[in-house]
Amino acid sequence: MEPKDLGRGIRNLRIESGIGLRQLSRMADISPASLTAIEKGQSSPVLATLHKVLKALGTDFAEFFTNSTEKHSVVFTSKEMSGVCDEHREYIFLLPKGQNMRFEMVHETIGPGEKKPQWEVHDCDLGGVILSGGPGQLEIEGLGRWTVRRGDSFYIKAGFKHRLVNLGKRAIKQITVMDPPRY
Questions:
Q1: What's the predicted TM-score (pTM) here?
Q2: Using an 8 Å Cβ cutoff, are 131 and 173 in contact?
Q3: 64 touches 9 (CB < 8 A)
Q4: Do the beta carbons of residue 162 and residue 154 sit within 8 Å?
Q5: Which of 26, 28, 75, 99 is placed for a possible disulfide with 53 were both Cys, Cβ 3.0 to 4.6 Å?
Q6: What is the Cα–Cα distance from 92 to 148, expressed in whole angstroms?
Q7: What is the dihedral of CA 60, 110, 49, 113, to 10 degrees?
Q8: What is the tens place of the pLDDT at every residue in 163-173?
Q9: What is the pLDDT of the chain when averaged over all its residues?
């Protein structure tokens, strides 16, 4: 999505929600100037910042970037999938929202070189499997750190702060499943 389209979408969602710019900047813990630049399409936020803004607006990546489909499908082609990326990460939403999906599935790519990604916390359980790349370090606040490699899987309960750092020279590719879905 182009920065101008992203910014327009955030601004429209903020206005529809009846939230002022300064109020949203406080809720998302970013400066009003940064939020203004995002809304005007002058800045493309990193995914962690975008996640904070969308969460403050009561939505998330999947809801914001996917289109609802009410048709009953079994197979979804790559043309029906949508995604979002920044300098270090890419998320491709493998299943469309709607159809009473009981879980959400995302193909994630985490590039090398990201020093310390921001903590993530979700209101759903998530599990995944490392397909290639790495190794990586999965850290769950208060529980520990684990090295993860191709073929390793993980499970994180809702509400736990976590992050995955790519320690290798090749991008980590993984499939992550969230239950219940965030959309």
A1: 0.67
A2: yes
A3: yes
A4: no
A5: 28
A6: 21
A7: 180
A8: 999 999 999 99
A9: 89
What is the rounded end-to-end Cα distance, in angstroms, of the chain?
19
- Which residues neighbour 73 within 8 Å (Cβ) at sequence distance 6 or greater? 96, 99
Residue entry with tokens 């903020």: 14
Question: Using one digit for the tens of pLDDT, what is the confidence trace for 41-66?
Answer: 998 888 889 999 999 998 888 778 76
Quote the pLDDT of residue 69: 46
**Residues composing the chain:** 183
What is the residue whose two structure tokens read 């976590």?
A: 162
If phi over 0 gives left and psi between -120 and 50 gives alpha, with beta otherwise, what is residue 89?
beta
Concatenating the DSSP letter of every residue in the chain gives --HHHHHHHHHHHHHHTT--HHHHHHHHTS-HHHHHHHHTTS----HHHHHHHHHHTT--HHHHH-----S--S---GGG-EEEE-SSEEEEE-S-S-TT-SSEEEEEEE-TT--SPPPB--SSEEEEEEEES--EEEEETTTEEEEE-TT-EEEE-TT--EEEEE-SSS-EEEEEEEES---
List of domains in the chain: 3-59 (1.10.260.40), 70-179 (2.60.120.10)
CA atoms within 13 A on the CB side of 124: 15
Tokens representing 35 are: 């939020």
